[in-house]
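Team,

Forwarding the record for the chain on the shared tracking sheet. I've put the sequence and predicted structure together so nobody has to dig through attachments.
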Amino acid sequence: MRRFSADYLRRTRAGLWSSREALDALALSDRERILDVGCGTGELTRVLAEESGGEVVGLDADPELLAVARAETECPVVAGDAERLPVADGAFDLVTCQALLVNLPDPAATLREFRRVATDHVAAVEPDNADVAVESTVDREVELERRVREAYLAGVGTDVALGERAVDAFEAAGLVDVTTRRHYHRKVIEPPYDEGDLRDATRKATGAGLADHETELQRAVGDEYDDLRSAWRTMGREVVEAMQAGTYRRAEVVPFDVTVGRAPAAREFK
């Protein structure tokens, strides 16, 4: 499984929950114990705690990320592997995750573990990274982002665009009454720019943003990576210059699917 920095997870996950409508299917107000698997820095953990009246526990394999989650959410956390949860059978009434299955080679195997420790429901919030749409006043940004996304999809080695295939994984794991619904997260950058906008532009200009996925990109494009990185940094400098002039605008729409299934009682699952 790939590892991510705390900064990367904050930037890619936090904004998703500006609207809580996508979590309606989780029936959070009825939950007493929730396990957030692959919680990272706790972006979803915090929201689960705010929206439910029950106890929320975060679980992740990375102790550094868990330390951040513990400090920033004040929820209990547990170190563990998503494919071998250090949790007793039926310990939680809801087991959930965000952007975890897209990073795993066998989502159904992990969902079987979710089913084992859930008495009621299992839910997954997963982005469709193949269907991201970008508009920008810096023309080359749209084309470069398309090239990078296609290379990333080719080199990543897991299904980072599960989409409706998440339902198949849920059913293969023995979950029943599976439903899914697509939502869209839209992020707009326009004047006046905030600190996060300026930081993202700097990461483009230095190539740091591309470096987050260097392994996957090199696997896909090989010797062309250096040329791609050079073009990316040039584009980033154009973005910075446009922001300094107050003319830069960018919109990104990321589709994500919320899939929910019920863990059958022992007499139902044979």
